[in-house]
Design a protein that fits this description.
homodimer; 203 residues; alpha/beta; 6-stranded parallel β-sheet
DNA sequence: CTGCCCTCATGACAAACGTCACCTCCATTT
DNA sequence: AAATGGAGGTGACGTTTGTCATGAGGGCAG
């Protein structure tokens, strides 16, 4: 019997090695390559044509969400499983839009990883049920692209003036967008708004 | 030859399982217990009297730093290795104060974990060299306790008034403390100050 | 005992922030 | 052709922030 070929992508080297070790303990799974960022992962998928790519979301070079979309377009025979810390509805939605077949949280038992890989390889979908539910009733991302850009920078501690310069807008406009975002999110100032948006995965 | 007995503590179940799998691949190391939080870890150490405890810092119930101090006081035969994402000088300092023998970053190669466990078990110290250097020249925590409390809440998006109510202070006083903290950290507003302090592990 | 630092406070002022009404321009939808 | 809605803008207004000077009390080391 041929083993399921898997590529693992994760930016924390220690966790990457550990996840690989975990998958290698399964008799029917083989880790054929490891990647420390999105770009490496894409190359590795191209070279190895694995059955499954297991990837983190937050990585340098290329985010796991972008990676998933690239893999879907260029190597459709490889199914993607997103493995992430973040139970953010926005992330799940974007992951599924990007063609990911699985979405698994890092705080699930480690046995579920191998299971998810097997299920996805068989063509099934694997999505954390709690998260799927939350994604449903938390509604879609209410922010426009501009609001997102601006709110992000505000969350970094930048002033309205700095943000305006950076995005070639007037300061008043920046304040307007922030005001809109604050009211959409039910926050009482920019900092709280940024926190809420981050928690939902909208930022 | 008797294997090195290790307890692993980590709040993300998937990562916990993976780290255990990683250590189990070493012929001279045995994982005798796993813990999902600080309290569990303390119990497990009491029961198993392992040679080494490998623990994350940010965990529910009891932080890895508190845990390290408890283990030093109650089970001194067990050496503690901190394994964390955060290259924060403040964390390193507090970890060493708490009697940790090792401080390892999750973005180091996975091979280093087993090495660190072996070294620490032999009575050596293992500290990430880059981080140790940074901890040295980044100086000690400049914030007072009050400044920390206030800056923390400001970073959560609370207004000066809210913080004042919470801590039973006048609003002016809160603004004074924030102003102090902002200038100490060389920031230009409360949000940036909170970000910087967090990055240093002072919050 | 005398600095020195932390805590907490007040008052005042300029700058930044949040809100609102109201405007143009432009692309998409109906 | 009209309606919608996003993007960008202006001006005005009140509130919040950040700064500074200044002071009162308390603890603690030299």
């Amino acid at each position: 019997m041929k083993k399921i070929q898997v590529v693992v992508a994760e930016d924390q080297a220690m966790v990457l090695g550990a996840l690989a070790a975990l998958l290698e303990t399964e008799p029917d799974i083989a880790v054929c390559a490891r990647a420390a960022n999105g770009r490496e992962a894409l190359t590795a998928v191209g070279k190895n044509k694995p059955d499954v790519l297991v990837t983190d979301i937050e990585m340098p070079e290329m985010t796991g969400l972008t990676l998933a979309a690239e893999v879907r377009d260029r190597y459709p025979q490889t199914r993607v499983v997103i493995l992430t810390t973040f139970a953010r509805p926005g992330y799940l939605r974007r992951a599924l839009d990007a063609g990911a077949k699985g979405y698994l949280l890092k705080d699930r038992p480690s046995a579920e990883l191998a299971d998810a890989v097997r299920r996805v390889q068989r063509g099934l979908r694997v999505v954390d049920p709690d998260l799927a539910l939350e994604a449903w009733d938390s509604g879609p991302d209410p922010l426009t692209e501009r609001e997102r850009q601006i709110l992000w920078r505000a969350g970094e501690g930048k002033s309205s003036g700095e943000i305006a310069d950076e995005l070639h807008l007037s300061e008043g406009t920046v304040r307007n967008y922030l005001s809109e975002a604050i009211s959409k999110l039910g926050a009482s100032n920019r900092v709280e708004a940024a926190r809420l948006a981050r928690a939902k995965g909208w930022l």
